[in-house]
Amino acid sequence: MNKELRYQITDKQNGLTVKAVLSSLGFSRHEILRFKFSAYQMYLNEKPVKVNRVVHTGDVLVIQELNIETYTLHPSTVRPDILYEDEDVVVVCKPAGMPSHPSHHHLTDDMGTLLRDYYQDEHFVIRPIGRLDKDVSGIMIYAKNQLSAARLAAQRKDGILQKHYYAIVEGQLEDKDTLIFSLIKEDGQMAQSFNQGGKQCVTEYEVIKHYQTECLIRVYLKTGRTHQIRAGFAGIGHPLCGDTLYGGSIHWIKRPALHCARIEFLQPFTKEKMILEKSLPEDMKRK
């Protein structure tokens, strides 16, 4: 989905270069650099223009995203669970068992391809902002254009884009705590090694409900590492129920009991604060 931005030059911007105008409109240096190297086509008064061109009051600057690559479409047989969408983003609830994006073993049955087929848009580029493991359910956000993707990725890096999770872990935890540990990926291994060096992880949690032999917790990630929740709780002796990769029992659930339940972010261009939630799926509900 290609994006077009249209701006009319004001008296205040009169005499500035296109580059300076873009900066005044909130574009980052990285975004402006992309404009210089043909990721986008820019026009001033309907004529191609470069970033060093001087503009004048009343001029019309148009930026068009270029995306000439096409992708194979398939019949749309499944409707995605869309929680919110506008021209820049689409927020969906990914079911457990579905990958976030195409991979070697999942070329057509992932959430990104499902969205492309749903829109029947052969130019739709799959741009997930973060990812969920295949067997983890919950909220995911996809950018519909490169500018939105860059701005959402920056929000994620700066901690503006936040996700909250529900998990069910084995055993009983303190009502609230912060876990600080490290994870490292060993060559040839799917699982992350706990406190064996690597990158620091900070995970906050609070217990929502105690069951007889498990507890439901709400999890907040202060860092975003692969398998941070799954490996972290297994590392302190409380693996997620159903998470066989980290030693969890499949007594009552056959996949990791983990669900992304809430996301907060700013709309990439309007800066409106968005908060979206999705309740626990049926397979994670306990009496």
UniProtKB/TrEMBL annotation:
UniProt-listed GO biological process terms: enzyme-directed rRNA pseudouridine synthesis
Keyword Isomerase part of the UniProt annotation:
yes
Query: What GO annotations for molecular function exist for this entry?
Result: catalytic activity, acting on RNA; pseudouridine synthase activity; RNA binding
Q: Which residues form a coiled coil?
A: none
Q: What residue stretches are annotated with the Pseudouridine synthase RsuA/RluA-like domain?
A: 88-233
Q: Which UniProt keywords apply?
A: Isomerase
The source's superkingdom equals: Bacteria
What this protein catalyses is:
a uridine in RNA = a pseudouridine in RNA
Gene3D superfamilies xref list? Pseudouridine synthase
Protein known as: RNA pseudouridylate synthase
